[in-house]
Amino acid sequence: MKPAQLVTVANLHSLTKAELLRIYLEQQGIRAFLADVESARVWGGLVESVKLQVEPEHAEIARKLVTMRLEADERKLADGEATETFEQNERA
């Protein structure tokens, strides 16, 4: 798929989080791709941003899924009830 045919649904500052969200979208049946990954590898996973991209017809639902997933993780951490973050959960 050509990059021009993809839509960025999230810009993430962690290669690990970007990869986990890509996997999450794929588990939901949405093909997802990462852009600017090579820059992230050069700098040890922390970069200005890694782009999480999907095909245009899946952009709206992908944005909602990513937002819901990240907000749920933030709520758990803010409430102090979570002992696991999104990243830890996905590794299990």
Question: Would you kindly provide a written description of the structure presented here, covering whatever features stand out?
Answer:
- With 92 residues, the chain is of the alpha+beta class.
- The chain has one domain (3-79).
- It has four helices and three strands, in the order βαβαβαα.
- It starts with 6 loop residues before the first strand and ends with a helix.
- The mean pLDDT is 81.
What's the structural blueprint in terms of helices and strands?
Blueprint: E1 7-14, H1 15-27, E2 32-35, H2 37-42, E3 46-54, H3 59-79, H4 86-91
Antiparallel strand pairs: 1-3, 2-3
Short description:
With 92 residues, the chain is of the alpha+beta class. The chain is built from four helices and three strands; from the N terminus they run βαβαβαα. The chain has helices at residues 15-27, 37-42, 59-79, 86-91, and strands at residues 7-14, 32-35, 46-54.
Number of helices: 4
Q: What's the β-strand tally?
A: 3
**How many domains?**
1
Low-confidence runs of at least 5 consecutive residues? none
Largest sheet: 3 strands, antiparallel
N-end to C-end Cα span: 31 Å
| Overall average residue pLDDT | 81
**What is the global morphology?**
globular
- Helical fraction: 40-55%
- N-to-C SSE series? EHEHEHH
Q: How do the strands line up in the largest sheet?
A: 1-3-2
Gyration radius, in Å: 13 Å
Name the structural class: alpha+beta
What amount of the residues lies in strands?
15-25%
